[in-house]
Specification:
Residues 1-28 form the signal peptide. There is one protein chain. This protein has 274 residues and is mostly helical. The protein contains 15 helices and no strands. It has one domain: Tetratricopeptide repeat domain (Serine Threonine Protein Phosphatase 5, Tetratricopeptide repeat), CATH 1.25.40.10.
Length: 274
């Protein structure tokens, strides 16, 4: 069985350094929380951004980038382009795009929210927190902003505040998959993998769960030494390219604590923990 130090041990350092983007699953979909499609921007029956394979994301980045070059003042195109850029890992360019959108639409709540998420993805956590809080309205709080705020607070080490934000988001939108996933990953950061798994399983069971939720669950299962189950969760019902990308991610994170060889070796015992 893989040893997990609590509460500020090796696993916390790994998760903070290697998978901040996974923790911040609520940030990945910009103001649309991952449900944006590119069909309205020039392609019919396009998949959701969160369900695109790497090659589909690269194609979407080229197409929407061309539209952005033509219409840099178009709010919808700019926000869509920033979302795609973050999904492909180009956080600095996504931030630059959203900075321009925030200048052009300084009072637009949705733009401010997306700008805060871009700041967080680029590592500007304190600035992101300020922007997210400025976008929020106390009389009509947005669950997406509360979940995003929680993810930022988790990265700042303000765990209790983060979990309080997630629970407030769940009060507004019960059983929302991305918020449950964020809450689960919060427990990963403090080494409580069993609690993390319970929230992530609940998240994965929701009808709005996407592949990133299952990737988080696979990661937590793998960190507990159940390699075969983690591999199944990371690859089942996915196109080959996406399954391979998920496995590459899982291997990368687990290998950082020298876990991959241990987990592979455990296959001889059927993937059981000891």
């Amino acid at each position: 069985m893989i040893r997990v130090d609590r509460p500020h041990g090796r696993i916390s350092r790994i998760m903070m350094g290697a998978s901040a983007a996974t923790l911040m699953i609520a940030l990945a979909g910009c103001a649309t929380n991952g449900t944006m499609t590119t069909g309205s921007l020039g392609r019919r029956a396009a998949p959701r951004v969160s369900q695109m394979t790497p090659s589909q994301l690269a194609d979407a980045e080229r197409r929407i980038g061309a539209l952005y070059d033509q219409k840099p003042d178009d709010r919808r195109i700019g926000m869509s382009y920033a979302t795609i850029l973050r999904m492909t890992g180009d956080n600095d360019q996504a931030l630059a795009v959203m900075r321009q959108m925030a200048i052009k639409f300084p009072n637009d709540r949705e733009v401010l929210a997306a700008y805060g998420k871009a700041q967080a993805a680029a590592g500007q956590l304190e600035q992101a927190l300020s922007t997210i809080e400025r976008a929020q309205t106390p009389d009509r709080p947005d669950w997406r902003l509360l979940s995003a705020r929680g993810a930022i607070l988790d990265q700042l080490g303000r765990t209790d505040e983060a979990r309080n934000a997630y629970r407030k988001a769940l009060d507004i939108r019960p059983n929302e998959a991305s918020t449950l996933s964020n809450l689960g990953m919060s427990y990963v950061l403090t080494g409580d993998l069993q609690t993390a798994e319970s929230y992530l399983r609940k998240a994965a069971a929701q009808p709005d769960a996407d592949t990133r939720v299952r990737q988080n669950l696979a990661l937590v299962v793998g960190l507990q030494g159940r390699f075969k189950e983690a591999e199944r969760l990371a690859t089942e019902d996915l196109p080959k390219e996406q399954a391979e990308a998920n496995m590459a991610y899982l291997e990368k994170v687990l290998s950082q604590q020298n876990s991959w060889k241990k987990l592979s070796a455990s296959n001889k015992d059927g993937g059981k923990t000891g």
